[in-house]
Amino acid sequence: MALNYADGLFFNEFNSLVGKRYRILSVIRNGWQRKHGRTDDIEELKKQFESKIDNPEWPDYLFAFYKKKSKELRDFLDEIKEKDYSELDDNTLADDIKKVRRKSAVLDAMTNMFHLFSSLMGSEFYQNLEKYSKDDDIINQNLVFYTQPIKERKHAKIKMYDLPNKFDLSQRDSSFSKLLRIGAFVNDDVSALLHLKKEVMHDLFVEVSKRINCDVDDLDYLQINEIENFLLTKDDPKPLIRKRRSLTILIYPEENLKVYEGDEAEEFLKSGSFSEVVEEKEDKILEGQTASLGKASGKVVVAMNVDEAVKKMEQGAILVAPYTAVEYVPFMEKAAAIITETGGITSHAAIVSREFEIPCVVGVQDVTKILKDGQRVEVDADQGTVKVIE
To answer: DSSP character for 121?
Structure first.
């Protein structure tokens, strides 16, 4: 569904939240999306986040802003779920799709912001805790305590209400902790809210697909403005959809979105402007970030999406995924350990793993390409490492 979110709204909202526009290249091949950020943007984001941590009012502002915007989307979803779209005209259908996108864009930007904050800054918070104690067990207990969700949700569970060896954090570290805790709740809440949005909009998208003569799943390969255009002009969307199903590239070099698909996208990749590089690991030990403590060993299952998890996941396997979301939860519960390519200590994978008390290591670069189905690995989440043993 990445193309449904491909517009300037996300980047405008992200810019207003953080004070920096985040430019990316997305390569969508066979339905799976990989994102490439610009190094200079990443470094600038870290600087912006550093300055935001020093503002003790920013966490409370973000939380209040999120509650307001999430309520607006929920209220609108409650309103449209009662509609019979078969009785409404094309313009009404198009307007409702655009309204949902506008109301969800800020939440999309906010969850991405917290995801990046956790990924880029989470290790710094862990290092900060080391100045309060030399005992690793006490440090890890405080890590869980000070990064647990600020408010309970289905998977954003509050695990500790008191801690005998609780650190007395400095003002800056307290603000740091609050941002991570808000992010832990927001990321889980947005994931559930966007899942609800998808359910509520299903009937709307079914009606749209009938009117433009395509499958409802085909709408994932169109931008919102393109869906509106095909709905109002009655042009045939299938040639464009066929090209995008094989390969699509989204790039924001500055502020304007560019989209390439099919042969044009292949030529763009061949130009050498961007490439994916898998780092060879001679010692067979991969490093990431501790998300949920513990150790486990087992056979790897690489699930690039939920469909692959359905087909391949077995009880006691080591689940390896790019990241996790609500749909992954039944398969996460089966896992002996979880490893993700992206994410931080307040990502969905981290929160759910702590709820299920499953060892979890996040942010292991290229892990979905390095590890293969059936390999045996040892996961030491206490140290944030994954060792290939077979």
So the answer is: H
